[in-house]
Design brief:
The chain has about 250 residues and is of the alpha+beta class. The protein folds into 2 domains: about 100 residues, D-amino Acid Aminotransferase, Chain A, domain 1; about 140 residues, D-amino Acid Aminotransferase, Chain A, domain 2 (Alpha-Beta Barrel), CATH 3.20.10.10. It is built from 5 helices and 13 strands. Strand 1 and strand 2 form a beta hairpin. The two termini are about 35 Å apart.
Length: about 250
């Protein structure tokens, strides 16, 4: 039971990680646990024990009856209860809880719509998986209202940042481009794997600060996310996006 006094519920004071579970394995567990630990350091929270994270994931997977195929696990780490107003309890006693769910194979393509909700690259929350996720919720809602599947979010400078729940890549010629982390971008686990795979495949890859007009001439747009892997973008703001022949070399 999560008490009504939990600071994650009341203030969004905490972090989460969503992991793909596939045929009995939590994919990239160590990378997710490390990112949560780094987020805790930034937010001034004690980091969770990794064995406790793995045990919580195993427990909810068992409770959900997931024994094979694809599923997802969301690990939540909050600042616990206590404190007065914005001040945390001293000492902080964090709370861990987890959720498991079935995760069917993702659609092969996704459509994007540029939204008005901006990614605040000056905020520490742009660099962590914070429980305060309302900007992302509103961005996805705006995109869906425009008839798209997912949002393209810009930062406060009008630079390309990310999707509501994914990192974004595109090709300029044969060069692979993705927004730099200081654009207000989360260091995605699949993002890192794609960049590493590009090196192995001999594909030039750059992390850049790019205006939205850069996408007007781009091909092979795709999103990366822990549950969906590499997902090609079929259209942006109603304009069809051509695939790129090098994209197949980056499949996860």
């Amino acid at each position: 039971m999560i008490p009504a006094s939990d600071r994650g519920l009341l203030l969004g004071d905490g972090l989460f990680e969503t992991l793909l579970w596939r045929d009995g394995e939590l994919v990239d567990f160590e990378a997710h646990a490390e990112r949560m630990a780094q987020g805790c350091a930034l937010l001034g929270l004690p980091a969770p024990d990794r064995d406790a994270l793995a045990l919580a994931a195993a427990r909810v997977l068992d409770e959900a009856g997931l024994t094979s195929g694809r599923g997802g696990v969301r690990l939540n780490w909050t600042a616990g209860s206590g404190g007065r107003g914005l001040e945390r309890a001293d000492p902080v006693e964090p709370r861990l809880f987890a959720l498991a769910f079935a995760a069917p194979e993702p659609a092969p393509t996704v459509s994007l719509a540029t939204v008005a909700v901006r990614r605040n690259e000056t905020s520490a929350l742009s660099r962590v998986k914070s429980l305060a996720y309302l900007d992302n919720v509103l961005a996805r809602r705006e995109a869906c209202a425009a008839g798209a599947d997912e949002a393209l979010m810009l930062n406060t400078k009008g630079e390309i940042a990310c999707a509501a729940a994914a990192n974004i890549f595109w090709f300029e010629g044969d060069r692979l481009v993705t927004p730099a982390l200081d654009c207000g971008v989360l260091a995605g686990t699949v993002r890192a794997r794609v960049l590493a795979k590009a090196v192995v495949a001999g594909i030039e890859a750059v992390e850049a600060r790019s205006p939205v007009r850069a996408l007007a001439r781009a091909k092979g747009l795709f999103l990366t996310n822990s549950l969906t892997g590499v997902q090609r973008v079929s259209s942006l703001d109603g304009r069809a996006i051509e695939p790129h022949p090098l994209l197949d070399k980056l499949a996860i």
